[in-house]
Amino acid sequence: MTNGFIASNRKKKIAFMPTEDSFSIDSQNGILAVADGVTRDPYEFLPDMRKLGGKIKFSFGYPRPSPAKIASDIFTQTFPLVLRNYELANRDENAIRKVFEEANKKIGE
């Protein structure tokens, strides 16, 4: 399995926000998995992101490691592994749904 590039957001990088998106490419089996890790809002308050102080509070209060990154990594690792079990002719909508269910189970573990 090959991993490629990922684009980063310069503003997030400056704020020390983790990259939460993930993908994997299984070129041998023609499988691509992409997951968009969803940035979380703080639990207690939403800081004023128009001000530097608010951005700093948000950044330093953000969980590390990011649960969104962990989930997106698990998905992009599990999806190709499970989908390989299906013959190419059987990789229909039902198969994809089952693969998503299996990947979501892994995320929940």
Tell me the helix content. 40-55%
Kindly state the number of beta strands.
2
- Main beta sheet: 2 strands, antiparallel
Classify the beta-strand content into a percent band.
5-15%
Helix- and strand-based class? mainly alpha
Shape: elongated
Estimate the mean pLDDT confidence: 82
Radius of gyration: 17 Å
Task: Please mark out the parts with pLDDT under 50 across 5 or more consecutive residues, or reply none.
Answer: none
- Biggest β-sheet: strands ordered side by side in the sheet: 1-2
H/E order of the elements? HEEHHH
Task: Sum up the structure in keywords.
two-stranded antiparallel ribbon, mainly alpha, 109 residues, elongated, 2 strands
Structural description of this entry:
The chain is mostly helical and 109 residues long. The protein has one domain. Helix content is 43%, strand content 9%. The chain contains four helices and two strands. A two-stranded antiparallel sheet has the order 1-2. It is elongated. The two termini are 23 Å apart.
